[in-house]
Amino acid sequence: DARVTQTPRHKVTEMGQEVTMRCQPILGHNTVFWYRQTMMQGLELLAYFRNRAPLDDSGMPKDRFSAEMPDATLATLKIQPSEPRDSAVYFCASGQWLAGRMGGELFFGEGSRLTVL
Amino acid sequence: TQLLEQSPQFLSIQEGENLTVYCNSSSVFSSLQWYRQEPGEGPVLLVTVVTGGEVKKLKRLTFQFGDARKDSSLHITAAQPGDTGLYLCAGGYAGGTSYGKLTFGQGTILTVHP
Fold it and tell me: Which residues of A touch B41 (CB under 8 A)?
């Protein structure tokens, strides 16, 4: 059963520490998203990639966040240094989109719950 | 600024009642999707609508896309406790480099009491 895999599921860290979250998208999917979910803001798009190329990272605080796809099976989201306001659930999602086609399904991982003390 | 406004934010009803959740925007979307999320899990797609005025039914759930493709609604008939969860609408774009990009509403937390 193909699914998006995220690690770690839970992370508690102290302010100022580096945090790296990893995602294995579904094999064959060409688009990978990073979302952050909080009660106040809901699901916010941080960044997304198509065929491993970054398309939009305007939702990400550039000074501390970075997102990469070193290969087709791995996407990473890094926070350095982390701050208490970064506490949230971070979701990775993947999908297969073709130009001109509408309504592709997004498959979400189970999320990484981050707590920054 | 939230591009997609969902209402209500919270809904608490008794089993057997009907309900409607709304998703509104000032933007035109190429597609509108509805997802359902349970605690500790990621959202799961329920339906995609792509044509203005389109209506889709999924058992007791009815989804409608507005004629101008700026709004959508989800109607549940005879709600059951198993319908409890967070319902999210998401607007998608088909053109240019933004194709496939999904913007989510803040969600509606539905609780159905037995």
Answer: 108, 110-111
Please state, in angstroms and rounded to a whole number, the distance separating the CA atoms of residues B9 and B32.
18
With CA atoms as reference, the chain A residue closest to B103 would be A45
**How far, in Å, CA of A63 to CA of A8, rounded?**
23
Residue at A54: amino acid letter: P
Q: Which residues of A touch B (CB under 8 A)?
A: 4, 31, 33, 35, 41-43, 45, 48, 50, 55-56, 91, 93, 95, 97, 99-106, 108-111
Cβ contacts of B94 on chain A, cutoff 8 Å: 100-102
Report, as an integer, the average pLDDT of B31-39.
93
pLDDT value at residue B94 = 67
Instruction: Tell me the three state secondary structure of residue B91.
Output: strand
Spatial distance between the Cα atoms of A84 and A17, rounded to a whole number of angstroms: 11
pLDDT, tens only, B56-110: 999 999 999 999 999 999 999 999 999 999 999 999 876 666 666 788 999 999 9
Instruction: Report how far residue B37's alpha carbon sits from residue B6's, in angstroms, rounded to the nearest whole number.
Output: 15
Q: Say which residue the tokens 């507005």 belong to.
A: B66
Rounded distance between C-alpha atoms, residue A4 and residue A16, angstroms = 29
More confidently predicted of A88 and B50:
A88
Query: What is the average per-residue pLDDT within A21-44?
Result: 93
Q: Which of A35, A55, A106 sits opposite B97 (nearest CB)?
A: A55
